[in-house]
Design a protein that fits this description.
single chain, 342 residues, alpha+beta, six-stranded mixed sheet
């Protein structure tokens, strides 16, 4: 009688998945973690910038005062940006996931969706911090706030000569230009002369960061010996996503979302004058609602995201993670951008 082996193809076995579900997504939010985050209030974000108008003069002994001046104030207003990450899971899927032995990460499928939605929303916001146009319900990102000296920002037309005080320093040679230490130091010098303070952070894409690193002696370590970067938010711990180079007190940090392919750029920011404001929720809905923290997988960000259940439709559950937020540069002359980095 023939010896017939019972092969794997003749046996029905359960498919086992070892360990957890492994995320293959880069949602790191570098800029979000560097900025000060504060709760806002009211129907919009508003502040009062003050421009030079006071007078100082020499006078002759006994002469009456004839010239007078005062610093003038303006109104800067930004609308709130509205962002969300909705998700929708059927009851059958949640029941099946809860009773499956593997992968372990799906046993609590609703919680996993909540974490993933939070990370996706944070990642999208980190992109908007650079490219948001400040129109409609989108935030005014760095390109709008400090990347243009002749646009209208927060309702103030910076093309008008009387509003020159509200302009950032924008250096654009018009063509791709290799950077040097002298150019970078001159960028910092121009910002210092405009506002009296040096930028403490310079954000750039990984490719531009490598060009800055190439300026250093190749025998010198590019990652700073310190594992902390000091910003207005406090000490930010460096890890695998926060490599930094210091030039004249300005820390150059790479961020995947600073990748402006058309005009590779360096964003010089002063963290004392750049912050994220979010609008806390009143939590008045009859449906379940609470606050969650953004988490990109490398640590949480206290952004005050709202989680709320949506009206039920059939045997499934719907929910969304919400953010009402705005990036605020209350002193644009403390920041700047270098374009066309070659």
């Amino acid at each position: 009688m023939a010896d017939t082996i019972q092969s794997l193809s003749l046996v029905t076995l359960a498919q086992q998945y070892r360990g957890d579900v492994v995320r293959q997504i880069n949602r790191r939010v570098v800029l979000l973690k560097l900025l000060r985050i504060v709760p806002g209030e009211g129907k919009n974000v508003a502040w009062a910038p003050e421009a030079d108008g006071a007078l100082a003069e020499n006078y002759s002994e006994g002469a009456d005062a004839a010239n007078f001046g005062s610093d003038a104030q303006a109104s800067a207003v930004l609308s709130w940006g509205l962002y969300r990450s909705p998700f929708h899971v059927s009851k059958l899927t949640m029941d099946a996931a809860a009773t499956s032995q593997s992968p372990l990460g799906n046993r609590m499928l609703w919680a996993r969706n909540l974490v993933n939605a939070s990370a996706k929303l944070a990642s999208y916001l980190n992109q908007e911090l650079y490219t948001g146009p400040g129109t409609g319900s989108r935030i005014a990102g760095l390109d709008a706030a400090i990347g243009n000296a002749g646009n209208t920002y927060a309702g103030i037309d910076r093309s008008q000569s009387g509003n020159a005080y509200f302009r950032p320093t924008v250096i654009d040679p018009g063509v791709s230009t290799p950077i040097t230490f002298a150019l970078l130091r001159d960028d910092i010098r121009q910002i210092y002369e405009a506002c009296g303070e040096n930028p403490d952070i310079a954000l750039c894409s990984p490719s531009v960061f490598n060009k800055v690193g190439a300026l250093f002696d190749p025998t010198r370590r590019q990652v700073q010996t310190t594992d902390m970067v000091q910003t207005a938010r406090g000490a930010i711990k460096l890890d695998a996503g926060y490599q930094a180079l210091e030039i004249d007190g300005t820390m150059f940090i790479k961020d995947k979302d600073a990748n402006n392919a058309a005009t590779p750029s360096i964003y010089y920011i002063n963290s004392n004058h750049l912050e994220l404001q979010y609008l806390p929720s009143a939590n008045m809905s009859a449906l379940p609602q609470f606050e969650v923290e953004a988490d990109d997988g490398y640590g949480s960000v206290p952004l005050g995201f709202d989680y709320e259940m949506l009206a039920k439709q059939g045997p499934s559950e719907r929910a969304e993670v919400l953010s009402t937020i705005q990036l605020v540069c209350n002193r644009p002359d403390s920041c700047g951008v270098r374009r066309n980095v070659g």
